[in-house]
């Protein structure tokens, strides 16, 4: 399966694993890369030296390309960028910030740069900043999300109409059929987050993985827009947020409720009551924890079968 994305990254399939905080360590990234996709390390939940260790372990676990996802709103960003350059990481996905900040510097170091956006406006800004590709992430996605609430089905063709660099679709994708749908709409590849949370190699806590598998339609909601929009699995903390909104809270009151390290507490440490549980709407279709390589293989098989089924309709 050769196209603009497989050629850009040097991978077999145009399928990328999301670099999710507290979920995307070296075991998951290397497993996805070994299966023919592109694995990403989630730098947002790693201190600089921890990231270096994960990069070095990933190099030992795979001889295939892998990358690092860098949310630019997190601290230690300068040191993280330096480590990525020193360790000669081939691919970087940036998000949650201005793509102009680091794109030129990373590209000068020979690194392929991709930026994650949630609107046409920011897709064009990323392209103008010189990125090699753009991820357009729809409202369905888990974790930090766009304020516009544009769904993937709408966002992908909108962005495609204005973009010249390769386009990767994200948000609500966990099956081969969804992958094909995104490609038909104009995407050159897809990025999966939530599906890989519920993988054996994910660094998420087992209780969080089980909660994702148990999730049904309507069990997630986008909230905390005044801080950074985030899609959460509904639990006591989520209900506390909802109750606080009834009082017309200030930004400071929302920050106080959120506190520090609540995402780590939930997704990594397994506090299903008070933790912040970030996951996408597609969790309602995820019913089993599987090896990452099996997830990739099943996605591609279903993608090819769906293509044949479509041909038979005409």
Structural commentary:
It is a single chain. The chain is built from 14 helices and 11 strands. By secondary structure, the chain is an alpha/beta fold. Helix 4 links the parallel strand 3 and strand 4. It has one domain (4-203, 283-311): TIM Barrel (Alpha-Beta Barrel). The longest helix has 20 residues, at 292-311.
Annotation keywords:
11 strands, alpha/beta, 314 residues
Order of helices and strands: HEHEHEHEHEHEEHEHEHHEEHHHH
**CA(first)-CA(last) distance:** 23 Å
Here the CATH topology equals TIM Barrel
Q: Give start-end ranges of low-pLDDT stretches.
A: none
> Considering the protein shown, what is the CATH homologous superfamily?
Aldolase class I
Specify the structural class. alpha/beta
Q: What's the average pLDDT?
A: 95
Number of DSSP E strands:
11
Shape: globular
Structural domains: how many: 1
State the assembly state of the protein chains: single chain
Biggest pleated sheet: 8 strands, parallel
CATH architecture annotation: Alpha-Beta Barrel
What is the CATH class designation? Alpha Beta
Sheet with most strands: strand arrangement: 1-9-8-6-5-4-3-2
Helix residue percentage: 40-55%
Counting DSSP H or I runs of 4 or more residues, the number of helices is 14
Strand content: 5-15%
């Amino acid at each position: 399966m050769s196209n603009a994305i497989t050629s850009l990254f040097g991978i077999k399939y145009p399928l990328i694993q999301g670099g999710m905080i507290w979920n995307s360590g070296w075991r998951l990234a290397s497993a996805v890369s070994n299966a023919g996709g592109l694995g990403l390390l989630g730098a947002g939940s790693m201190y600089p030296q921890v990231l270096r260790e994960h990069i070095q372990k990933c190099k030992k676990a795979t001889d295939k390309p892998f990358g690092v996802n860098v949310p630019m709103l997190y601290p230690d960003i300068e040191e993280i960028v330096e480590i990525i350059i020193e360790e000669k990481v081939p691919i970087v996905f940036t998000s949650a910030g201005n793509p102009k900040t680091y794109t030129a510097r990373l590209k000068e170091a020979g690194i392929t740069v991709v930026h994650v956006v949630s609107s046409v406006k920011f897709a064009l800004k990323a392209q103008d900043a010189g990125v090699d590709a753009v991820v357009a992430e729809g409202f369905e996605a888990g974790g930090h999300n766009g304020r516009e609430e544009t769904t993937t089905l709408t966002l992908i063709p909108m962005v495609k109409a204005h973009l010249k660099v390769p386009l990767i679709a994200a948000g609500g994708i966990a099956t081969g059929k969804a992958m094909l749908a995104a490609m038909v709409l104009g995407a050159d590849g897809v990025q999966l987050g939530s599906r890989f949370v519920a993988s054996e190699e994910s660094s998420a806590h087992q209780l969080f993985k089980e909660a994702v598998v148990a999730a049904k339609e309507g069990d997630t909601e986008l909230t905390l827009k005044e801080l950074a929009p985030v899609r959460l699995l509904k639990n006591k903390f989520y209900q506390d947020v909802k109750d606080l909104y009834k009082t017309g809270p200030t930004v400071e009151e929302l920050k106080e409720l959120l506190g520090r390290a609540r995402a780590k507490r939930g997704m990594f440490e397994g506090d299903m009551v008070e933790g912040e549980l970030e996951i996408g709407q597609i969790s309602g279709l995820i019913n089993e924890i599987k090896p990452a390589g099996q997830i990739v293989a099943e996605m591609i098989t279903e993608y090819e079968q769906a293509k044949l089924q479509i041909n038979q309709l005409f």
